[in-house]
Amino acid sequence: MLNKKINDSARKSTHKARAIMIQGTMSNAGKSLICAGLCRILKQDGYRVAPFKSQNMALNSGVTKDGLEMGRAQVVQAEAAGIEPSVLMNPILLKPVTNMGSQLIVCGQVRGIYEAAEYFRIKHTLIPEIMKAYDELASQNDIIVIEGAGSPAEINLSKGDFANMGMAKLAGAPVLLIGDIDRGGVFAQLYGTIKLLPEDEQDIIKGLVINKFRGDANLLSDGLDMISSLTDKPVAGVIPMLDVDIDDEDSLSSRFYSNSNDAIIDIAVIKLPKISNFTDMAPLEATEGVGVRYITRAQDFGRPDLIIIPGTKNTISDLMWMRTTGIEEQIVKLAKAGTPVIGICGGYQMLGMSITDKAGTEGGGSIAGIGLLPVHTEFKTEKHLAKTSATFLKVNGLLSSLSGVNITGYEIHMGKTYLTHEASSLLTLNGNEVMGCQNGNVYGSYMHGFFESNECRSAILRDLSEHKGLTFNKNILNWEEYKERQYDMLAEGIRSNLNMKMIYDVIEKGI
Q1: 230 within domain boundaries
Q2: In a domain, 260, yes or no
Q3: N or C: which terminus of the chain carries fewer CB neighbours within 10 A?
Q4: Do the Cβ atoms of 58 and 73 come closer than 8 Å?
Q5: CATH for 74
């Protein structure tokens, strides 16, 4: 009955769908995962549901089927909702380029690079585009799950806000406030956040959620009663630290600190200061028998079976960092000793002979590359975005089993890379255009996401194992099936620890 009531009222509305907004007491409180879980639950309960985040700041992004760029968190949430990702779900994306400036992406397309103060001055002009995207999305769905950004209590940024309470008002969305108990002081987080808000915004908060709890939730009962009394807000639930493997939004990701000491295959990934799209490594991390280590110091390399240089939002500055830390020297040393190296996007650019940024796309300048691939990169002002299908050409060196393997993925880069006359291409796109380069055991391309291919992953792990005189006898998981199981596990963990009747009541009543 409750489900039918919300569906009927949403479909009769001439304005927009029902909405609920998840805000956090801080970044990394778990907003993105809770939104993904709610999307999955609402889908399971028969709703047309979509995620929305008006403004996202992250280095992880995805490409839609029509070649537009959006935040990775909303791609994940769309997958959880069982729908195609759309830039309507994330109209404003900020990708940090320097400590003070970010690339501004509006409805999937680059508008330019803005210093923080400059963006703050012009951001109010973006509200019509945000609302156009939201209204179109809301017209297609029963419920919108909106994710906030950072904390609503960032009082220095509250003027002209459209990421937190400003968006809640624009959408008429009641708010659940999430606190992270794992980082300590959760009751102070919740109380302080609420009390820093003006009364009208305090009223929009309809419930509190404590996230990432470890232990017996009964031990929290007195604290839950007290925080509810102090804030006059009900506690909607205590969500435990869930053991699910779902893409993280940004570099606060705990995966950077993981290690596997009993793995058959040891993979070293360079943790660049401005690392982007590190979710490329997620299928490798999830595969049994594979250990993925993130390297920040030259002395941490050891003798890996494979080195991966991932994408970055600032290729030249991250290459300079590798140079000054001694990481570049170690990569060259290990590559010359036979260790295979794969460069993805910015990592591919770094492996070449030179990188030039005359247009100032990422800050300007030029620099000699690592010199392991016979290619040269020039940055352009246009960003190349595409969903891509490709086939490996005849692959030389240790990873020869990749020859002829078909893969799908996406491209998202500013530079254009030119092969020298003696260079060998790595891939053919859609049967004609070539992309990437190979030289011995060193491989590079602009293709993101190719580790998601079961055949590709299997070929790489088989070749690496045989090189060690071993047989890789672990199961090669099906990545799509694996992700679906994780979304269902997330939904189950959230559903069983949230008062879902309260959540549905909040959605029905609005603000």
Answers
A1: yes
A2: no
A3: N
A4: yes
A5: 3.40.50.300
Q: How many other CB atoms are there within 10 angstroms of residue 296's CB atom?
A: 13
Same domain, 225 and 294: no
User: What is the Cα–Cα distance from 331 to 319, expressed in whole angstroms?
Assistant: 12
369 & 233 share domain: no
- Scanning the structure block, which residue is given the tokens 């630290």? 241
- pLDDT value at position 414? 86
Q: Is residue 290 located within the same domain as residue 238?
A: no
* Active-site hit among 35, 39, 107, 345: 345
Q: Report pLDDT digits (tens) over 451-464.
A: 999 999 999 999 99
- pTM more than 0.85: yes
At 1, is the pLDDT very low, low, confident or very high (cuts 50, 70, 90)? Answer: very low
- Tell me which DSSP letter residue 155 carries: G
| CA-based max dimension of the chain | 73
| 155 and 40 both lie in a single domain | yes
Same domain (yes/no): 128, 105: yes
What is the pLDDT, as a whole number, of residue 309? 98
- Pair 152, 17: CB distance under 8 Å: no
Instruction: Say if 480 falls within a structural domain.
Output: no
In this structure, what token pair is assigned to residue 388?
């891509």
Q: How many domains would you assign to the chain? A: 2
Are 256 and 282 spatial neighbours (Cβ–Cβ below 8 Å)?
A: no
Residue 449 tokens read as 């996401």
- Is 467 an annotated catalytic residue? no
Annotated catalytic residue, options 35, 107, 376, 448: 448
User: Based on the domain organization, do 205 and 315 belong to the same domain?
Assistant: no
345 among known catalytic residues: yes
| Structure tokens given for 83 | 């729908």
Tens-place pLDDT, residues 34-79: 999 999 999 999 999 999 999 999 888 899 999 999 999 999 999 9
C-alpha–C-alpha distance, residues 351 and 21, integer Å: 43
The answer to whether residue 258 is domain-embedded is no
Q: Is 125 exposed, middle or buried (0-12, 13-18, 19+ CB in 10 A)?
A: exposed
**What pLDDT, on the 0 to 100 scale, is given for residue 257?**
55
Q: How far is CA 15 from the centre of its chain?
A: 31
Q: What 8-state DSSP symbol labels residue 338?
A: T
Parent domain of 210: 7-246+485-509
